[in-house]
Each structure stands twice: as C-alpha cells, then as structure tokens.
C-alpha cells in the first residue's frame, strides 16, 4: 500500500497528451454507451472526472453532467474545455472525500473511471455513490483487473493493484446495489514498471440502486 499522495495538479496540463490514456477513455465511453442506459434527460455525476475525457464523451447523450474531482488542476483543464466548447450542460465541482467533503446532489447515473484504485477505503465510497443516486439509478465503474503492481510507473497514491471482479461485485452488494455485472471494456498493452510488456485489462462494472 502506498500512502504518499500523488500530485495530480502538476500532471493535469499534460494529462491529455498521452494517446493511450485518450484511447482508454474512448473505449470506456463506448462500453458505457453499449449498456443502453443513457437517456437525453438524465443527470450524470462523473466521480474522479480528471480532465473530462470520459465526461465529454458522454455529454452529448445526457441532460446534464457534473464532473467531480479532488484535483483543482484537473478541474481547471476540464473547465477550460467546457468554456472553449460552450457547453451549458456540464459543470465542475471540487470534492475531496479524504478531507471530509461530501458528495451532494441527486443523479440518475454515476460513473467513475480509473479512480477506484486511488481510493483507500472502497466501501465508504460505494456507499456515498449509492446515496446520491436516485432510486432506479445506475452506477458504472471502470477500473483495472487485478494485476501485480506493474501498471503504474508512479505508484504514489495507488492503494489497489486492480480489483478482483467477484470481490468488487460483493462490495457493491454490501453497499446496497443490485444487478451487478462486469465485462471487459478495454485492454492496454504497455511496459510494466519492470520494463516487460504486459497486457492489462480494464472492466466496466454496472449496477443499479433499487
């Protein structure tokens, strides 16, 4: 477990310059679209939105979208995109659960992409996401399958080397979600931290609030 905090503010301005990162976000967007749950009137929360690569891929298909992150730098990049594109249905919100902030609002869909492995205690987060969903609302989580700690070149702030799908589905059930299921959303071939080429898989896990 790595307790050192990663400085996403410093990384924010160059975040979108990595083609593999942009491609992964696109794959996750397509996987979410494939669930058949997007509706033009729905309100969406993207928890850990970063620079909005997934948020803005979904934006044309939903009513409104709130991008939440604990990095002011990431939110600034997303806000600049919103302003440049003239998007009236996307807003940003700073929220650091580690500092005692709480999620607010009510949403028809909550998404979170490649954020969960940076969260120390997953159970309380899932409970928080469940709390802001409307009854019948959906959750979409995209993250790494279990790996050997080779995915991140910089392990600072990484609390989980991916997730066992079965155990995470159990955690969703414990948080009050139903109809949990998972499928592979993307595969990333890249050198691990040791330099050896590996294929890392990313799942999309979906569930519903009763």
Features:
210 residues, globular, 7-stranded mixed β-sheet, 7 strands, alpha/beta, 28% helix
Task: Note the topology.
Layout: H1 8-11, H2 19-33, E1 43-47, H3 55-58, E2 64-69, H4 72-85, E3 90-94, E4 107-113, H5 122-132, E5 133-144, H6 165-174, E6 178-191, E7 197-208
Parallel strand pairs: 1-2, 1-4, 2-3, 4-5
Antiparallel strand pairs: 5-7, 6-7
Count the DSSP helices. Answer: 6
Class, according to the CATH hierarchy? Alpha Beta
Q: What is the molecular shape?
A: globular
Main-sheet strand order equals: 3-2-1-4-5-7-6
- pLDDT averaged residue by residue: 91
Largest sheet: 7 strands, mixed
Q: What is the CATH fold-level name?
A: Rossmann fold
Radius of gyration: 16 Å
CATH-level-4 superfamily name? Vaccinia Virus protein VP39
How many separate domains? 1
* Portion of residues within helices: 25-40%
* Helix/strand structural class: alpha/beta
Number of E-type strands: 7
| Second rung of CATH, namely the architecture | 3-Layer(aba) Sandwich
Beta strand %: 25-35%
H/E element order: HHEHEHEEHEHEE
> Distance between termini?
34 Å
Low-confidence stretches: none
């Amino acid at each position: 477990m790595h307790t050192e905090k990663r400085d996403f503010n410093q990384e924010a301005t160059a975040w979108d310059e990595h083609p593999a990162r942009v491609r992964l976000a696109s794959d996750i967007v397509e996987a979410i679209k494939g669930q058949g749950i997007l509706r033009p009137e729905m309100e969406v929360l993207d928890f850990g939105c970063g620079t909005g690569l997934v948020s803005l891929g979904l934006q044309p298909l939903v009513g409104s979208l709130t991008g939440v992150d604990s990095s002011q730098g990431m939110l600034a990049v997303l806000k600049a995109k919103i302003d440049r594109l003239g998007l009236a249905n996307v807003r940003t919100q700073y929220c650091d659960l580690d500092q005692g902030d709480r999620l607010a609002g009510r949403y028809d869909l909550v998404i979170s992409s490649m954020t969960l492995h940076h969260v120390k205690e997953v159970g309380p987060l899932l409970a928080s996401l469940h709390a802001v969903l409307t009854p019948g609302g959906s959750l979409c989580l995209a993250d790494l399958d279990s790996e050997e700690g080779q995915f991140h070149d910089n392990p600072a702030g990484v609390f989980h080397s991916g997730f066992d799908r079965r155990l995470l589905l159990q955690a969703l059930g414990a948080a009050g979600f139903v109809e949990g299921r998972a499928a592979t959303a993307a595969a990333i071939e890249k050198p691990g931290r040791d330099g050896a080429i590996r294929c890392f898989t990313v799942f999309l896990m979906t569930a519903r609030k009763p």
